[in-house]
Amino acid sequence: MHEEIAPRPPVEGAAEGASTQPDDTGPADETTEPASAAQPAAAERVNARAVVLTCISLLASKAWEAMGLVPDPATKKLERHLDEARLAIDAAAALVDLIKEQVQDRERRELETLLTNLRLNYVEQRARG
Question: Which phi and psi angles does 67 have, rounded to 5°?
Answer without folding.
Answer: -80, -5
